[in-house]
Amino acid sequence: MMPELNDTLAWEYLEKSSHDRATIRHRRRVQIAETASYKNYPEAVKIELPLDWSLQGARLQSLLQQRRSLRRYHASNGLNLNEVSFLLWASQGITAKMGGHLLRTAPSAGALYPIETYLVIEKVADLSPGLYHFDVGRFQLERLVPEVRGKDAARVCLNQDFIAEANLTFLWTAIFRRSMAKYGERGFRYLFLDAGHICQNLLLAAEAIGCGGCPIAAFYDQEANRLLGLDDRNERLLYAASIGRK
Ligand SMILES: Cc1cc2nc3c(=O)[nH]c(=O)nc-3n(C[C@H](O)[C@H](O)[C@H](O)COP(=O)(O)O)c2cc1C
């Protein structure tokens, strides 16, 4: 029988790799030797690749070329609800129906969509600051906690101060059972892959509207989960991205 979620190897790993404010400085890190940052096969036949493509889709090329993690934002030039809506659609919007599945902009292992999206809104016209949840099915934002601000997101993300200056921050949690009830331990891998797809969609969409963002995976797990009000035996923060005007 498959072990219950909190008895899995995946869960043990999740616990053992969590950051905690009290222990982060003193915790013994595993010592792993570094290695080269890319690989080649010196003996292999080499084929030069052209770089002067004249392809359709040049817009995507320029977005990919320009994307850089952005940690300084021109907050005075805010975003509006229209732009936030576009970013939500680009990252997780429903784009097709297939049988019982509602397919989205980003791929998902088994079309199980284990990732939930929360937003900390700081400076967006037409939206009061606070913590929101994205209801994918209804394409609506649900206001959860008006008191949660960008500085709170920054604090739980290892005090990375630039997050407080962002117009908004996306926070992606996993509902572990969605994937692991089907795939068991292996389903744990898929959660992070799904989150990566979602984040990349968001970063390119942000680029397309004159914004930029920074992916964030450094956070104090328990503090972050509490900030979002999660039942952390079932749902935890995996990944985040701050977004702001260039
Ligand atoms: C999984 C992941 C986690 C990251 N976490 C952080 C973070 O917590 N804080 C931060 O400032 N940057 C973070 N980054 C951004 C990287 O530092 C950045 O992608 C890298 O330096 C390459 O630069 P570029 O994104 O501008 O190409 C993260 C990136 C990834 C992919």
UniProtKB/TrEMBL annotation:
Signal peptide positions on this chain: none
Gene Ontology molecular-function annotations: oxidoreductase activity
Nitroreductase domain span: 65-245
Name of the protein in question: SagB-type dehydrogenase family enzyme
